[in-house]
Description:
Layout: H1 3-20, H2 25-34, E1 37-40, H3 74-86, E2 93-97, H4 118-127, E3 130-134, H5 154-178, E4 182-187, E5 191-192, H6 200-213, E6 223-228, E7 239-240, H7 244-254, E8 257-261, H8 275-279, E9 285-289, H9 305-316, E10 323-327, H10 336-355, H11 359-367, H12 371-381, H13 386-396, H14 404-415
Parallel strand pairs: 1-2, 1-10, 2-3, 4-6, 6-8, 8-9, 9-10
Antiparallel strand pairs: 5-7
Residues 187, 228, 261, 288, 328 line the site of manganese (II) ion.
Amino acid sequence: MTDETKIIQRFEDAKEQFSAIGVDVDGALKILEKIKISMHCWQGDDVHGFINPGLELTGGIMSTGNYPGAAHTPEQLRKDAQKAFSLIPGKHKFNLHAIYADTDEKVDLNEIEPRHFKKWVEWAKEQEIGLDFNPTFFSHPMYKDGYTLAHPNKNVRDFWIEHGKRARKIAEYFGKELGQPAYNNFWVPDGSKDNPIDRLSPRRRLMESLDEIFSEDISEDYTVDTIESKLFGIGAEAYTVGSHEFYMGYGISRGKTILMDAGHFHPTEVISNKISSLSLFLPKLMLHVSRPVRWDSDHVIIMDDELQEIMKEIVRGNLLERTAIGLDFFDGTINRVAAWVVGVRNAQKALLKALLEPTADLKKVELKFDFTKRLVLTEEYKSLPFGAVWDYFCFMQDVPVGLDWFQEIQDYENDVLNKR
Length: 420
Ligand SMILES: C[C@H](O)[C@H](O)[C@@H](O)C(=O)CO
Ligand SMILES: [Mn+2]
């Protein structure tokens, strides 16, 4: 039997098993094919960017590791991302931060314009992918005393307000050029190492700064503003201005999309248990799928329980159309292109597993309060051969099946990354 025949044969066998429990496998694959994952640029260069690459990474986040081959130029980053995309089934999005402007001009964050991102747009068109965006409120001399938009000094706030406004125009440009909305995520690191006396005033200032940034109405056909909360960062252990409660209130009162990052909550809190609640109050939602190990460590996502729970919640709640899935991790101890591929493929695998569940039947069992049957069935379904369906999906999408992609990564490391 050829490899091709084996993949098809195994898929047909698996399909029979899933069909026997009422799952429409072909329908699941059609849905999976359309789901875009937003692959974050910052895994490719340990969050340095190109505007001021020499500056220290601030904002309370940290990338560790010195694996060879990090991208140092926009061309290198594009080449690496392209390599990753070639090993991932489907067409997706690339998520840029403002510090990744591609220009020969010396331009600061309060001066950036769409034209400084033109090359990214041209590349995205060639690759037939979308772009997302993030204003960068860190790694800059105007990140002062741990504060930006909530700083007591108006000059500092004004600098960052201008940056936020410009970021929205860039995201709008992405959306117009690429024919799909660019999600533009506001994560603001402002906070304090020790207990503040006044928790309220910085939060009021953040609210007012954001109101000013969002004062211009921009069509969501082009860009969707998202706001990301956080519990704590390095050097902001006691207090983060933009907490979950802050953004819940802000998002719901202003109609802004809330972004939940899997690493931004107390260690035993999980975002999978929050998705359904937020879905009742806002039309859209965005996630940063990340893996916190003891803290917001931004490890590459693996097929762990929480990743699968997140995807199950989206699928079971019929929220795929309303939920933007972005990745957020940065590991400099391993091949960075492999990190992307593992992350995106895992997100897709977890989605596929969720799509291969006979959800309607399980809901009926639950409504009869037959918790024994619910447990027995969900445990039994875990051993159904979803891997054969995934392999077939990769095969049909013309990307390497199984481990084959890793050889390509090793060749790329030898031929490209090690020569940097
Ligand atoms: C680099 C990103 O803006 C960052 O990871 C942000 O999304 C975050 O999660 C900060 O902890
Ligand atoms: Mn995040």
